[in-house]
């Protein structure tokens, strides 16, 4: 075991925030009872915000970003983990207030880890990452609240992004009829390949709308917020469920109570960061058995290195990255 590791480090100076690939001594690792040799990480929307400094995601400097990683336990003082165990980490403030996954090594609280399901490869686990795990949490929310295949269309917004792409794959595989809401209608063939049967141009939902619109959706997975979410709530059918997890269009929600009190629509919030352990394990177990590996490869571009993560972050925020980015931390 070497005594230093390669990592992206975000530093803040008077000139602003800057991310660079550095060699970091192990002595800088934060407190924790499990040290992990990371193999792969990924770039989620939140990582791109941290890498660019576009939004105050990083709460402590210097910070190693990366809200996800997969790797092998190197040393452990935690009863559940032994050296060599393959583990995944998502969230818990890692990459925000605790050094994260865009690095070759991490030290974390063992309670935050989940075992890599035996049938899922390390690369595929990061092709999913927080985006895929959140897509599964959204699907689980729809199912828990009674939305069944055959009841009608399910709208997925931010469809060509990470959460959206995986949500379409999962819902289609479970037999739901999926409509992709996208700003990139040129990606229609890709979205249909994932399982969408209809494509709606996001611009038709992006302007302020009426409190109630024609009933269309039996369920919704929304990753963008703002007017799109408000309009999707307004057009959800009587008794339908809207799972909301994202804010790519904005943090606001300019809606009225009409869909909730006149149509009995349920707005279900989905959070991946502090999600309880049992639900995480259920989500990862289901991902391992319900994801089609070939389609996941279609969703994932070429594997990039740490420098590539810094380079592609602004493009991801501009909505120019399709699907998911996997990072090989040794590249
Ligand atoms: P991506 O960047 O991969 O995808 C976001 C997608 O949103 C884009 O591909 C684009 O889809 C759409 N989009 C981008 N800009 C806008 C805009 N201005 N207006 C409307 N739509 C837009 O991000 P992820 O899929 O990883 O994450 C999606 C959202 O979910 C983010 O807001 C993220 O912070 C949030 N998230 C929340 C989690 C939680 O725990 N609650 C966990 C994971 C993610 P298209 O081109 O198809 O329109």
Describe the structure.
- The protein is 29% helix and 27% strand.
- The two termini are 18 Å apart.
- It is of the alpha/beta class and 331 residues long.
- The chain has helices at 45-52, 122-144, 162-173, 188-194, 226-234, 258-262, 277-290, 293-299, 306-317, and strands at 4-13, 16-25, 34-42, 68-76, 86-90, 105-108, 114-115, 153-157, 177-182, 196-201, 217-222, 236-244, 266-269, 326-328.
- The model has no long low-confidence stretch (mean pLDDT 96).
- It is globular.
- The longest helix is centred in the middle third of the chain and has 23 residues, at 122-144.
- The protein has 2 domains: 4-116 and 301-328, Alpha-Beta Complex (Quinone Oxidoreductase, Chain A, domain 1), CATH 3.90.180; 131-269, 3-Layer(aba) Sandwich (Rossmann fold).
- The structure holds NADPH dihydro-nicotinamide-adenine-dinucleotide phosphate (NDP).
- The site of NADPH dihydro-nicotinamide-adenine-dinucleotide phosphate has 31 residues, from helix 1, helix 2 and helix 3.
- NADPH dihydro-nicotinamide-adenine-dinucleotide phosphate (NDP) binds next to helix 1, helix 2 and helix 3.
């Amino acid at each position: 075991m070497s005594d230093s590791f390669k990592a992206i480090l975000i530093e803040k100076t008077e000139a602003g925030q800057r991310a660079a690939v550095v060699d970091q001594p192990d002595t800088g690792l934060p407190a924790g009872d499990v040290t992990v040799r990371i193999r792969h990480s990924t770039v989620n929307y939140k990582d791109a915000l941290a890498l660019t400094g576009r939004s105050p995601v990083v709460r402590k400097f210097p910070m190693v970003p990366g809200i996800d990683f997969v790797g092998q336990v190197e040393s452990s003082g935690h009863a559940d983990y032994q050296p060599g165990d393959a583990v995944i980490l998502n969230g818990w403030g890692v990459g925000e207030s605790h050094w994260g996954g865009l690095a070759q090594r991490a030290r974390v609280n063992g309670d935050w880890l989940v075992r890599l399901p035996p049938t899922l490869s390390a690369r595929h686990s990061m092709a999913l990452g927080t985006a895929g795990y959140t897509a599964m949490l959204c699907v689980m929310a729809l199912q828990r609240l009674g939305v069944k295949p055959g009841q009608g269309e399910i709208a997925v917004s931010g469809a060509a992004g990470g959460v959206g792409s995986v949500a379409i794959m999962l819902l289609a595989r479970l037999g739901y009829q999926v409509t992709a809401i996208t700003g990139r209608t040129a990606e229609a063939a890709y979205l249909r390949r994932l399982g969408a049967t209809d494509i709606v141009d996001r611009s038709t939902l992006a302007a302020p709308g009426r409190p109630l619109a024609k009933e269309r959706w039996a369920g919704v997975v929304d990753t963008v917020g703002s007017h799109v979410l408000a309009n999707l709530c307004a057009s959800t059918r009587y008794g339908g469920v809207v799972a909301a997890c994202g804010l790519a269009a904005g943090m606001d929600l300019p809606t009225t109570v009409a869909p909730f009190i006149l149509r009995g629509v349920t707005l279900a919030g989905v959070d991946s960061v502090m999600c309880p352990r049992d639900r995480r394990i259920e989500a990862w177990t289901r991902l391992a058995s319900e994801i089609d590996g070939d389609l996941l490869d279609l969703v994932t571009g070429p594997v990039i290195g740490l420098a590539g993560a810094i380079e592609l972050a602004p493009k991801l925020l501009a909505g120019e990255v399709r699907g998911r980015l996997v990072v090989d931390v040794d590249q």
